[in-house]
Amino acid sequence: MSEYEAFASAPSYGWSGRPLGLTGSPVSIRLRPHSHSRNRRILHMEAARDETSDHDHLRGPRGTPLLDRIKDPSDLRRLARADLPKLAHELRWETLYAVSKTGGHLGSSLGVIELTIALHYVFRTPEDKLLWDVAHQTYPHKILTGRRNRMHTLRKRNGLSGFTKRSESEYDVFGAGHSSTSISAAFGMAVARDLSGRNFNSIAVIGDGAITGGMAYEAMNCAGYLGNRVIVILNDNGQVSLPTGTRSAGGVQPSSALSVSTSRLLTSKPFLDIRSAAKQFASLFPSEVKDVAARVDEYTRGILTQGGTLFEELGFYYVGPVDGHDLDQMVPILENVRDMPGNKPVLIHVKTEKGKGYPPAEAALDKYHGVGTFDVASGRQNKGSPKNPSYTSIFAKTLIEEAEEDRKIVAITAAMPGGTGLNLFGEKFPSRTFDVGIAEQHAVTMAAGMAIEGFKPFCCIYSTFLQRGYDQVVHDVCLQKLPVRFMLDRAGLVGNDGATHHGTFDLAYLGCLPNIVIMAPSDEVELQHMIATALKLDDIPSAVRYPRGNGLGLDVMREMFGYGLEGMEKKGKALPVGRGRIIKSKSEGPVATSKSVAILSIGTRLLDSVKAGRALEERGIPTTVADARFMKPLDTALIRDLASRHDVFITVEEGSIGGFGDHVLHFMALEGLLDTGRVRFRPMVVPDRFIDHATQEEQYEEAGLSSGHIVSPSSG
């Protein structure tokens, strides 16, 4: 195993280093800063063996002379085509080093280095519209479009977004973060172009994961039918789910029949060989067979390999497969497509490797999809050992324990087995684990069908992604009152992924629906109880929402919530539906003021609510803190009690306007609890705007939901 020594501090931006030898004999690495024309320190990595080239594609470059010349894509287009592979080498290591200091989506960005260069080289961006589906793979795009000197701010407060963002750059023509949207948006721009008589190309880059989403096919169906020219780049890296390879009912292959089909195509002979062989075979066949053989060129992209015809039948001209890391092949193909006459939409099938060029990423199951900061030389991520388990892992552990006793429990996810914890469930129960790809609508209705047949489906989807299956929640689950259990991970504010990934709307969009029980745990013990509660609800849908991050730990729960001897080793117990609990009762006896405050929290803002309650008591303000547990049904008896005994009533939630606080206010108004004006009501919610990327702590401060903010309206 290679050993490395690192002696350097990080520059603020820019990568110009010679990294470890990535193959062959072990090497020893020394990192040292040296001067630069722009007075910035640059890491220099020297291998202890001889080098044959400053741009050996198995090593990082000594410097970045080509990349230094590029301020925007117009500079890129001034380079000779022969320089592009060297530029790709520099850009790959620039991206690698930048992400090592900030964390982020690394593997997908490393996989599209050459493709990004080729697209900006061939097309005249931003006049030509380049759209990236999901857009977590756009770090190289950002570097080439004038944001290189800000990469050190990636996913930080007031810094660069981890996705495309229209307000950030004119080259980000369409914002993204969720999947399967790029073809629709690119096609809309193409239609608008043709209606207005303008002349530009509209290009959508979509991965083999995102293209599993039904919206992508809706867009291709429409594009083929209307016949407006749009160019679709299918970036096929075989990574449909996160991570691909999770054990499930479909085995360990990508969760997509299309991906299996395109993989078969990619492992077949190159098309030119197939066409040449077909011509040779035709001369040997009888005339009846020659008629069929004459159509091979049209169908060779599908009949022989089951790949191209699907797209062709949708009205697209199919080109591929193309090696997405071979610029000598890719650039002329893109130029030919760019210059093709006619209006027929085109799909170019590009094969890439996620994590390309960085062995730790190439070897990892998730291809270093999402990483924290890490050491470039070793690939080791700087992840401290968390003191407490994450809510995601607690959910997975609890569901596994329940499933060991109940064979009717099944689990469904939409391409996020790792993020939801179902990779762990799949290891134990592969035949009861269903990864349906990026297809939330299908996941929800599939769960409804399984519920009808007597199974107990747990539909595990990020809060922000369940928005994509909302009609199915309404029509296929709640309207029919089917006992689907929705497990909504990443509820509330999620941190560095930012506005596209916050789970702040679920209480509002689920709370307005009849026939559903909605729960939000304040801590990890409560999460166990709520999973047990959902399991017992066999006649109604239910939802449990819980945040990203780690639990509080028993010491904190005992100190702040008054827990006894119960611990995480015990199984959860079903809770009385619609019943909350009082965590801290207000002090009785002489106080400095007659005012008293009730704080009713739902979810994990309970800890800050208790802190606020203690701070208010120190100021002489009697304060009761309660945990609602349920949004639907509300604990109306608890609300009446709190309203009758306090002067100020505050609700606290990690959700938007229209959620829990509005439901409480609605009940109190209808019950006449506010008629006399004795009780002042103050709902505390996430502000009515999108909150950008930052740490979760920074975001909750910005949202005004920390303990200090709770104290302010209480004492006002």
Automatic annotation (TrEMBL):
Please name the SUPFAM superfamilies in this protein's record: Thiamin diphosphate-binding fold (THDP-binding), TK C-terminal domain-like
Gene3D superfamilies reported in the protein's UniProt record: 3.40.50.920, 3.40.50.970
Please verify whether the record's keywords include Cell wall biogenesis/degradation: no
User: Mind listing the UniProt keywords for this protein, alphabetically?
Assistant: Isoprene biosynthesis, Magnesium, Metal-binding, Potassium, Thiamine biosynthesis, Thiamine pyrophosphate, Transferase
GO BP annotations of the record are: terpenoid biosynthetic process; thiamine biosynthetic process
**What EC number(s) does its UniProt record assign?**
2.2.1.7
Q: Which CDD domains match?
A: TPP_DXS, TPP_PYR_DXS_TK_like
Q: In which pathway does it act?
A: Metabolic intermediate biosynthesis; 1-deoxy-D-xylulose 5-phosphate biosynthesis; 1-deoxy-D-xylulose 5-phosphate from D-glyceraldehyde 3-phosphate and pyruvate: step 1/1
Tell me its cofactors. Answer: Mg(2+); thiamine diphosphate
Give any GO molecular function from the UniProt entry.
metal ion binding
Concerning InterPro entries, the annotation shows: Dxylulose-5-P_synthase (IPR005477), THDP-binding (IPR029061), Transketo_C/PFOR_II (IPR009014), Transketolase-like_Pyr-bd (IPR005475), Transketolase_C (IPR033248)
Q: Any idea where the Transketolase-like pyrimidine-binding domain is?
A: 389-554
Record family assignment: Belongs to the transketolase family. DXPS subfamily.
Q: How does it assemble?
A: Homodimer.
Can you name this protein?
1-deoxy-D-xylulose-5-phosphate synthase
Provide the species name: Compsopogon caeruleus
